[in-house]
Design goal:
The structure holds two protein chains of two kinds.
Chain A lengths: L31 H8 L6 E4 L5 E4 L2 H8 L5 E2 L25 H11 L1 H23 L3 E3 H6 L1 H11 L6 H13 L3 H24 L5 H7 L9 H15 L1 H15 L2 H9 L4 H11 L5 E5 L3 E3 L2 E3 L4 E4 L1 H4 L34 H18 L4 E2 L7 E2 L5 E2 L3 E3 L4
Parallel strand pairs in A: 2-8
Antiparallel strand pairs in A: 1-2, 3-5, 4-12, 5-8, 6-7, 9-12, 10-11
Helix pairs in contact in A: 4-6, 4-15, 6-7, 6-10, 7-8, 11-13, 13-15
Chain B lengths: L1 E6 L5 E6 L5 H7 L19 E4 L3 H5 L4 H8 L8 E3 L12 E4 L6
The chains are: A alpha+beta, B alpha+beta.
Chain lengths: ~400, ~110
């Protein structure tokens, strides 16, 4: 949570300080990424915010790439701002190379471009079913009823969660991402862990083609993966695979809801949907990836000191005016959609191909049934911010044929 | 100056002057070769800088190492002459090399 104390260590120069509360800055609105870009327009490329324990924030495309590709200085071991006493260890997220590499290779068979292409048919059927559940109603909360549901179904398919668990698991995931208090968060975390434990036990007896079975049987550098390793990977896949796709999709549809011309163009020509998804990714990044400085390092006039936290605000990378012309304009025809919303370097998001496919498929299935829609006027959507940005709701309406 | 020709699936060719001593992926990105994504920037975790190396160059530079070979298997369109361009260090001896860019990287 936000801390009101101001922390400015002596190695930070006065001109490098820019006060910004990553958890509750008053300048941020429902157009989270747009208002973020506006709020930081005159902030230095790398600045020190004295709030939340004090931390650096990197907001330029090329500088973010530099930081995340230099794990010897900027470690992924800790990702909490402010720092916490016993930081969790997610695998492979919190392991610096080369430690993360063998785990990534364990995961690749289920997340590679080829694996994603093979899942396309199943994903399309899931998306169609979710859209069918609301299409005749003429109204829905797009976040709750559509964008949050689809990634849960895809996750269950990848992990091999039996379909009869769909409703139970969806409710637990919902509870987890809506948790406000530490108690709610702990309760939801325990429910999720219980589901994974149960599933691991089940797959030990009845192996299938799913990821859990793969975790249990795979040869990992001459040994089997431990239960702790499997649980740590399941957790990071859960955290990384759902809220992310949900949130980028939600913001992208908030944009699309206000653009009837683009709706009809996309509905008439689904071949444009990969560009649409990519432009959504560029404009509406939702992840910031923190790093811990593990050795003193001087670069770009900044004295990074051991123990400093650095937030790479990935959502700013696609809005970087030094990299992208008119970065705040949604334009599916632009040639350069450069962004780092999947990060880059050794921790490039494992799900980059899957996420792109999910966004494209869901948009296509949605537009087949609801080719024209609008946001319900006057509705306040609400958002969460921090190291993950989320839209809380998106009430839409459309005419039923 | 090391001339390298990139060819897309339609046969359109683009010649670049690659920089010796850095990876072929870096030069391909610097020259904006279409279809070379290189999402991970050379960390060998994404396989989106996949290319096919024409003979006799493939035999001359050698096949992929074990980790690279595994990454290549996960691409959409692997072939026997597949390599990741981030793992090919350009040398003067590669002058005139021709490589193909796959139909898609993801």
């Amino acid at each position: 949570m936000a801390s009101l104390a101001h922390t400015i260590p002596p190695h930070v120069k006065p001109e490098q300080v820019f006060e910004f509360d990553i958890y509750a800055d008053p300048r941020i609105s429902d157009d989270v990424q747009g208002s973020y870009a506006e709020a930081l327009r005159h902030a230095p490329d790398i600045f020190w915010s004295p709030l939340n324990g004090g931390h650096w924030l990197v907001q330029r495309h090329d500088l973010i790439a530099e930081v995340v590709k230099n794990p010897a200085v900027f470690s992924a071991r800790e990702m909490q701002i402010p720092r916490v006493k016993n930081p969790p260890l997610f695998i492979p997220l919190n392991l610096d190379p080369p430690g993360n590499v063998p785990y990534r290779h364990v995961l690749m068979p289920k997340f590679s471009p080829r694996a994603v292409a093979e899942m396309e048919g199943k994903m399309r059927a899931m998306a169609a079913e979710i859209v069918a559940d609301v299409a005749d109603a003429g109204t829905c909360d797009f976040v709750h009823d559509v964008a949050a549901r689809f990634p849960v179904s895809v996750f269950m398919e990848v992990m091999g969660l039996p379909l009869e668990k769909l409703h139970e698991f969806r409710a637990i995931a919902d509870g987890f991402f809506k948790a406000h208090t530490n108690e709610e968060y702990q309760a939801a975390s325990q429910q999720i862990a219980a589901i994974f434990h149960e599933l691991i036990d089940f797959r030990r007896k009845a192996p299938g083609e799913d990821l859990i079975s793969h975790f249990i049987t795979v040869d990992f550098e001459g040994r089997k993966l431990s239960l702790e390793e499997i649980m740590a990977m399941c957790t990071v896949l859960f955290l990384g695979g759902m809220d992310t796709v949900t949130n980028v999709t939600a913001f992208t549809f908030q944009q699309l809801a206000d653009d009837p011309a683009l709706q009809s163009r996309l509905a008439a020509d689904p071949a444009l949907l990969p560009q649409f998804a990519e432009e959504g990714l560029r404009m509406f990044g939702v992840i910031g990836t923190p790093r811990l400085v593990v050795q003193d390092f001087d670069a770009h006039g900044i004295a990074f000191r051991k123990g400093d936290m650095v937030l790479n605000a990935l959502w700013q990378s696609g809005r970087d005016p030094t990299r992208i012309a008119n970065p705040d304009r949604f334009d599916i025809d632009r040639k350069d959609m450069a962004h780092l919303n999947f990060s880059t370097g050794p921790h490039l998001c494992l799900g980059h191909a899957l996420a792109r496919a999910e966004m494209r498929i869901l948009a296509e299935e949605w537009l087949k049934r609801v080719p024209s829609f609008r946001a319900i006027p006057g509705a306040h959507h609400g958002f969460r911010m921090g190291t993950v940005i989320a839209l809380k709701s998106l009430p839409l309406q459309w005419d039923i044929a | 100056m090391v001339r390298i020709v990139f060819r897309d699936v339609a046969g359109n060719a683009q010649e670049i002057n690659a920089e010796p001593g850095v990876s072929l992926m870096v030069s391909a990105k610097a020259h904006g070769i279409a279809g070379i994504e290189a999402e991970c920037g050379g960390s060998m975790v994404c396989a989106t800088c996949h290319i096919y190396v024409d003979e006799p160059w493939f035999s001359a530079i050698g096949a992929a190492g074990p980790i690279e070979a595994e990454m290549v298997e996960y691409t959409r369109h692997p072939r026997l002459t597949s390599r990741l361009s981030c793992q090919i260090l350009v040398t003067e001896a590669m002058d005139g090399m021709e490589v193909g860019v796959p139909l898609s990287q993801r």
